Sequence to fold (254 residues):
Amino acid sequence: MLVIVKESYDAMSKEAAKIVADRLRKKPNLVLGLATGSTPLGLYKELIRMHKEEGLDFSKVTTFNLDEYIGLPPEHDQSYHFFMWENLFKHINIDARFVHVPMGMAKDVDAFCDWYETRMKECGGVDLQILGIGANGHIAFNEPGSSLGSRTRIKTLTGTTRLDNARFFKTAEEVPKYAITMGVGTIMDAKELILLANKASKADAIKAAVEGPITAMCPASIIQLHQKAYAIVDKDASAKLTGLYNDSWESKTF
Fold:
């Protein structure tokens, strides 16, 4: 794992965008795994800028999102379909036919999860997966205790995660109790990973993920076993790390 510590959220976001842009320029039909939440917004903002000002081309890109709430239609303003179109897709030249976000309104969720796994394989697998991390160490909606070999499936959200997400809803009761999520094993199949984290509230999770034991109680810790994973964090999120770390992805030392 290459751990990169940047001075600020903005610098962290731009560092991640450099990697995405580099991989896209080398492979125009990149298969890109995407995350939602507040953490990747800076990355998406920078990719939009690169598209508009530098001509970064997304026309052949295929995307797969990590997760979606069960029970929210795509047009709901808190669905991850809506989030991705509002914060990235409608601002770049992506082909809607190549966009994949789990379908929270699927009539047969188990069958949909199987199809999602198959579709990723048909597209050649995810080349580069963007990840956030929860305060409890979850990645996607793989809560502590999730199998480290798990595949795309239904997950029950913990009270902590629902509370974290309640700020996006009118009331805490409106936060869905279930979600479709890529599994930990599915995430680990990606050829490269970028884990992003900012703010002091993520410092314990980053410490556990980067320097702690590999355990299902901190699902993000599994990325220690990935052959090509980047953890890009701001100064606050790195506060509890004890090792010496890099300041640029170009050092290429894993």
Summary: The beta strands are 2-6, 31-34, 62-65, 67-69, 99-100, 128-131, 153-156, 178-181, 192-197, 229-234. The mean pLDDT is 95. The chain has one domain: 2-251. The two ends are 5 Å apart (CA to CA).
